[in-house]
Amino acid sequence: MNPDKLSNKCIPLSVFRGKFDSKQLNDVLVKAGLEHLSDNKTVIIPFERRTLKSVLGYFFSSRTAGIELSSEEVFDDELLDLLRIGKRNQFFIILDERALHEGKEEFLKCASHIKLDVRNKSSEYIRKKVEKAQAYKTKIIFDQIRSDDEFRKLSAFNNDFFIGDLFAKQDLSEVRTNKLNEGSLLNVFQHVMREDYCYKKLTDILTLDSQLAHKLIAFLNSAMYGRESGIYSIKQAICFIGENNMRKFISLLTAQELTDSRPGDIYFKAAGRARFCELLAKKMGKKRSVIDRAFLSGLFSSLPDILGLDMEEALELLQIHQDIRKALTGKQCDLKQVVDIVLAYEDADWERLNQLSARCKLSVDSVPKLYQQMLEEMQTDTYLMN
Question: Mean pLDDT over residues 241-253, rounded?
Fold first, then answer.
């Protein structure tokens, strides 16, 4: 690897020396990926007052970024002065509905958008707030929409902006929002870990747990798969997702359940490592069975962190394929080669990384590229079905 290449990924230190050049910094941040990460759509970024003071004199306004003021900030004269600067500099400024209250009209004049929480609000209350915002040429964002029925009623106000769980993509972090039956989930996990597991028996198990079955079907029907026709039965879902992706889905779901009361980054680290191992196995030209198990090897390499046990104890609790078990207990095999390279890269052990890569006839420069691909996929949840 050439360390000089890292300069293409970093903000030059010279930007922060001497006098700040806000246009230069703004251009650099755009190149660093704001528009890429937002898919060229406007991003709403929450700010506290302290941060807002720096931003308003620091950045040029951008069509890809809107400033949302924290709802915990007090509406006072200092804040009003800051908002006036923001409006003068043509920033998108989003305030909460307090700006629509009587006596807060000066704040309302500074806002481009007002976020209105529609929970437990009557149609008459909402109508009055919308009319007041329109009188000041300020747009309304209806927030906390929870059902199709609420959305249909609010659509009558001819508003353009809506936020709520109704519009959220079903992803794995949402799957655990409603606590799943851990015993049933582990039962499914143990079944799908078997070679050539029985589809009929899996269907029977899922039929007994309607909540888990619903989560699987909702996940497969999410927009990220782009299906023209929906999936409406457990049997359809099992056939569509396939054996390997079912193992990945259930393993990730189980990992989330097991890390529910542990530090939040444990799960994401484990899932990222799993996908990194899978990408690396493909790059190394491993056979299909190794590639399929590489994902699980990476995920289960984090078992000590997930369960708070040492590896041997953790493996005893779960029925895991013998090849994966060998890799995780230090026995030489194709899967251990993959996991070792990933761990060397994560630990920034460049000497070991070079040795392992040479031994496998792998270009060491390809490893950071695969790591970058993994990070991008983790941001969009596309890693599960690839």
Answer: 82
Q: What is the pTM of this model?
A: 0.49
Name the amino acid, one letter, at 348: A
The predicted-structure confidence for 17-69, as pLDDT tens digits, reads as follows 333 444 544 554 555 455 555 555 566 777 778 777 776 765 555 556 678 88
357 class by beta-carbon count within 10 Å (0-12 exposed, 13-18 middle, 19+ buried): buried
Contact 367, 345 (CB under 8 A): yes
Residue indicated by tokens 């993959």: 338
Give the orientation angle of helix 234-258 with respect to helix 288-300, to 10 degrees: 40
- Read off φ and ψ for residue 43, nearest 5 degrees: -105, 130
Alpha helices in 32-104 (DSSP H): 34-37, 49-56, 77-88
**Could you tell me which of 242, 296, 307 has the C-alpha nearest to residue 274?**
296
Four-CA torsion 142, 147, 152, 156, nearest 10 degrees: -20
Closest CA to 126 of 103, 158, 149: 158
Are residues 358 and 366 in contact, defined by beta-carbon separation less than 8 angstroms?
no
Write the DSSP assignment of 139-160 as a string of letters.
EEEEE---SHHHHHHHHTT--S
Q: Is the dihedral of CA 15, 20, 24, 29 positive or negative?
A: positive
Mean per-residue pLDDT of the chain:
77
DSSP states along 245-292: HHHHHHHHHHHHHHTTTS-THHHHHHHHHHHHHHHHHHHTT--HHHHH
Which among 203, 197, 198 has a CA at the least distance from the CA of 217?
203
Helices (H), the chain: 22-31, 34-37, 49-56, 77-88, 105-110, 123-135, 148-155, 172-175, 182-192, 199-207, 210-220, 234-258, 265-283, 288-300, 303-307, 311-317, 322-328, 334-346, 350-359, 366-380
Residue 26 contacts residue 62 (beta carbons within 8 Å): yes
Contact 295, 307 (CB under 8 A): no
Backbone phi and psi for residue 113, each to the nearest 5 degrees, phi listed first = -140, 150
Give the closest residue to 171 by CA, choosing from 249, 242, 232: 249
How far apart CA 267 and CA 269 sit, in angstroms, is: 5
Dihedral angle over CA of 135, 138, 139, 143, nearest 10: -100
Distance CA 345, CA 351 (A): 10
Which of 165-174, 175-184, 246-255, 364-373 is the most confident on average?
364-373
